[in-house]
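Chapter summary example.
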Amino acid sequence: MFNEPHDLLHEFPEFQEQIQSLKNNDSYFAELFQRYHELDEEIHRIMVGVETPSDFYIETLKKSRLFLKDRVYALLQEGG
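The structure predicted for these 80 residues follows.
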């Protein structure tokens, strides 16, 4: 929904410990996590009206966030 949290700990609650471990021990995962967080924050600001970019830009951000989420999930499924 509109103000629903999309951070990775809410998206994948069953992987919270693994996410924390990978953030601390895997620089690639940490980079993906950080980029996802930055995109999620930007999308949130747009959705609450702080920023008003074009629809194309918003869709591009959402697709990028989804790509990162899928990549993070794949890494979690692999066990790191």
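To summarize the output: The helical segments are 8-11, 16-25, 27-47, 55-78.
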